[in-house]
Design a protein that fits this description.
alpha/beta; Rossmann fold; eight-stranded mixed beta sheet; four-stranded antiparallel beta sheet; 10 helices; globular
């Protein structure tokens, strides 16, 4: 599969009054053309930071400390804000977790969509307003009167559909969906995920799905990457990772959720590490039932476990850094 996005050895830190928060620590990730990949892990593992780094929207007081991000083979390092804005206009789109905070409460839905169309496609305001009604129908809002309504007049599911429509105004090559269903009930979650699957196929775009929901990943994603404490600890095809998890953290994560006919659920002991005071070795070592002496001293690198599956664990030959 041809690569669309390449993230290589990316490190991002946030500077707080307590010290430096190491949000990402040498993360590498690939997204193929027209591929849907899931990014899972506990809260605070760095999932959203990856998405923000790709689109060039790391908030202050955050900073990219190292690494490289390429889209369609073009290195984004050192690009100005205007150049990144152009990239977001033509290639990238981001859906936030809570649509209520992303929509302008004092502007009508149609006006917000028309503004996005006019900015991204350079068309007239009149044409943009017509396209706004069309894009609403495309995301399942067939009533044209919705374009004249304000965000507070819409349900959560409808607002998320509007946000998906907003993301599609520029015909992006990559859509980053940051927990797009977390604030919705189960029925609406399924509808929104089906909509994302349909539009990604129709528009031939790749999707990076950031989520806590393993069930959603198993249904909609071709590949999955598992994050822990600012690191990707396992990645591979969804079938391999969910059916034959290699990393002890992935095994623990899957044991804590209900999949298939599993009845007995177990939790992972301990707590997530402090990202200000990380240990030098594997960040999961203090919680791991299979910990060895080397785990607390040397950070493992991703190594091949089987075809299309990699894990960062000293249980596997090749995890020791060169």
């Amino acid at each position: 599969m041809e690569k669309l996005v390449e993230v290589e050895d990316l490190s991002v830190s946030y500077y707080s009054y307590r010290g430096v928060v190491h949000a990402l620590n040498g993360v590498s990730l690939e997204v193929g053309q027209q591929e849907t990949i899931g990014l899972v892990g506990e809260t605070g593992s760095g999932k959203s930071t990856i998405g923000l780094a790709i689109v060039g929207l790391i908030p202050n007081p955050g900073r990219v400390d190292g690494g490289k991000i390429s889209i369609d083979g073009e290195d984004l390092s050192g690009k100005s804000k205007d150049q990144m804005r152009e990239f977001r206009r033509t290639k990238l789109a981001l859906i936030f977790q809570d649509p209520s905070t992303a929509l302008n409460p004092v502007l009508r839905i149609g006006d917000q969509l028309a503004e996005a169309f006019a900015a991204k496609r350079g068309i007239s305001r009149k044409e943009a307003k017509k396209m706004a009604v069309d894009i609403l129908a495309e995301v399942g809002i067939s009533n044209p009167k919705v374009a004249n309504q304000y965000p507070h007049e819409l349900s959560g599911g409808m607002k998320q559909r509007v946000m998906i429509g907003m993301a599609l105004t520029g015909n992006p090559e990559l859509l980053i969906a940051d927990e797009p269903t977390s604030s919705l009930d189960v029925t609406l979650q399924a509808q929104i995920m089906e909509l994302l699957a349909d539009v990604s196929k129709k528009k031939q775009m790749a999707v990076l799905l950031i989520t806590h929901n393993i069930g959603v990943v198993s249904r909609y994603c071709e590949r999955v990457a598992v994050m822990y404490a600012g690191n990707i600890v396992e990645t591979g095809t969804t079938r391999n990772v969910l059916k034959f998890p290699a990393h002890p953290y992935t095994q623990g994560l899957l044991s804590a959720v209900k999949l298939g006919t599993r009845k007995q659920l177990t939790s992972i002991p301990g707590t997530v590490p402090d990202l200000i005071n990380l240990i030098p070795g594997c960040p999961f070592a203090p919680r791991c039932s299979r910990v060895m002496d080397v785990c607390s001293k040397v950070k493992p690198r991703l190594t091949k476990v089987k075809d299309d599956q990699y894990a960062a664990c000293h249980l596997y030959e090749g995890a020791m850094p060169a």
